[in-house]
Amino acid sequence: MDLVSWIFEPFASSFMQRAFISSLAIGITAPVIGVWAVYKRLVYLTDAMSHSILAGVAAAAFLGISLAVGGILAALLMALLVALLIIRVKVPEDSAIGVVGQGLFALGVIGVGLIGDPRALSHILFGNPLTVTSTDIVVQLVLSTVVLFGLWWLSPLIGISTFDAGHARSVGVRVGLLDTLLIGSLALVVVIGLTSVGVLMVITLITSPAVAARLMTQRLSRTIPLAAALGAAAAVVGLVASYHLAWPSGPTIALVAIGEVAVVAVVVLIVRQSPLRLIRTRVPESMSP
Amino acid sequence: MGGGPLAHEPPVVEVRHLTVSYGSVVAVDSVSFTLGFGEAVALVGPNGAGKSSLLRSMAGMESATGEVYVRGKECHHQDWGTHIAYVPQRASARWDLPLTVLDVTVAGRRALTRRWMRPSRDDLDAAREALAQFELVALADRVIGTLSGGQAQRVLLARAMVQEPEVLLLDEPYAGLDIQSSELLSRTLRDMSASNVTVLCALHEIATARDTFPRAIALNQRIISDGPSREVLDDAGIARVFTSNHRADRSP
């Protein structure tokens, strides 16, 4: 089989076409918001939020309402409980995230188990793009467009408030509201990725392409499109590979994304060891405390 | 240098009984002073004297009791950034972000323009103009993490000047600068004062405070002394401010 038919053969069926669109949507959206999650050090919060979403999905399945709505509500509940523990009870941030995230995850696992379908749990955790319906695709595309547009519009504001929150507040930027919007959008992205890559694997698409892009360029104007391209490539290559290898698609896509980081990291290490490092920029004095 | 309050001019800034507390700890205790048109004033005091808290509360970033008047009008949160620009300590910003010098500088325009919009062409032009004023225009597209300490400090000053403020508050801008960068910063602050921007600058460098700022306020929770910097910061004055300890007086 030649390479072209190896790539295109899987997409002869309509369910694989839907899987392709769905994976591509999350493959682009997750890395773009991931750039900010990485810079704002929200990766652990997002990971725990994705675990918490399981509780909402289980509750939604019980109540017969939309799984996506249940997932979003659980993510919001998680963020609220974490904020309460940090601000009111004065629990350290990572501890609060660990306690609440794993607590809701445990509830979710039990809840999904009670539904009775043993495949349900692995579908939610690891995704199954082959079960994506046309309605799912419309919802995913609309949400992805909203998140991508919102991030493009707000990126100068998010940039300056991340750089110097104190100054941003002093010129009237609503820093808390921006952070809330960003965390809410991260929850939306996890839900967008629910059917195609699953709640456990979506964090890989949020972080890995962003980390690889960050290693490749210092400029935000290049980091974001680069992360999107790496994420899209991981989604497509992972989906095709999973078809041929008969591997679960979510983890395969995640492995490709992690592979991208590994390759870039090795290249960076080689460049740092070589005389080429002389053309790298020096460590700025302004970064030292 | 210019500056020195003119007798017939009303003060640009009047601070009345400003108090900042964190729980039971009083950081700034009922401080009152005025700043004249184009005055350049050094704010000195030991670590923990409340210098940062005072500046941050004047910039509207810290809740405080008491009043801050700018040109006779009480300052409210929505107009803080337009009258008073604040330059925080350099180390408090995230210099590892992939932003350019222009991205950071244009942030100052948020005080003047619609805050949820993307920067307009006018905003970017104003930022470039401010960069030119600080001889930074060649660095406009540089990533901030590659700047030297002196350049980074000038970028923060340019960002503040984009706000077209009447009053500039600086929190330890001299920390970590080499002699050359310090001298350049002093010259810049003198120029600003000469062009009628009122400057209040917290710093630890006593010699710089004496040479650059005609007036000094010595703070240690309360104002210990306020007057010509050569008097406030002579040997006896320094001993007075660094041995005063009002926090201890207040302990039960």
What do you see in this structure?
- The complex is a heterodimer of chains A (289) and B (252).
- With 289 residues, chain A is mainly α.
- Chain A has a single domain (3-277), classed as ABC transporter involved in vitamin B12 uptake, BtuC, CATH 1.10.3470.
- Chain A is built from twelve helices and no strands.
- In chain A, helix 3 (43-63) packs across helix 4 (67-87).
- The longest helix of chain A has 30 residues, at 134-163.
- The termini of chain A are far apart.
- The model of chain A is unreliable at 282-289 (pLDDT under 50).
- In chain B, helix 4 packs across helix 5 (149-162).
- Chain B has a domain at 13-92 and 165-250: Rossmann fold, CATH 3.40.50.300.
- Chain B is of the alpha/beta class.
- The chains are: A mainly alpha (289), B alpha/beta (252).
- Chains A and B meet through helix 7 and helix 8 of A and strand 6 and helix 5 of B.
What are the main properties of this structure?
heterodimer, A: 289 residues, mainly alpha, ABC transporter involved in vitamin B12 uptake, BtuC, 78% helix, globular, B: 252 residues, Rossmann fold, 6-stranded mixed sheet, 4-stranded antiparallel sheet, 34% helix, 24% strand
CATH class of the domain at 13-92 and 165-250 in chain B: Alpha Beta
* Distance between the ends of chain A: 58 Å
What is the CATH topology assignment of chain A?
A: ABC transporter involved in vitamin B12 uptake, BtuC
- Helix and strand composition category of chain A: mainly alpha
Parts with pLDDT < 50 across at least 5 consecutive residues of chain A: 282-289
Structure class of chain B: alpha/beta
Mean pLDDT of chain B: 86
SSE ordering of chain A: HHHHHHHHHHHH
Outline of chain B: globular
> Residue share in helices of chain A?
over 70%
Helix share, percent of chain B: 25-40%
Q: What best-fitting shape of chain A do the alpha-carbon axes yield? A: globular
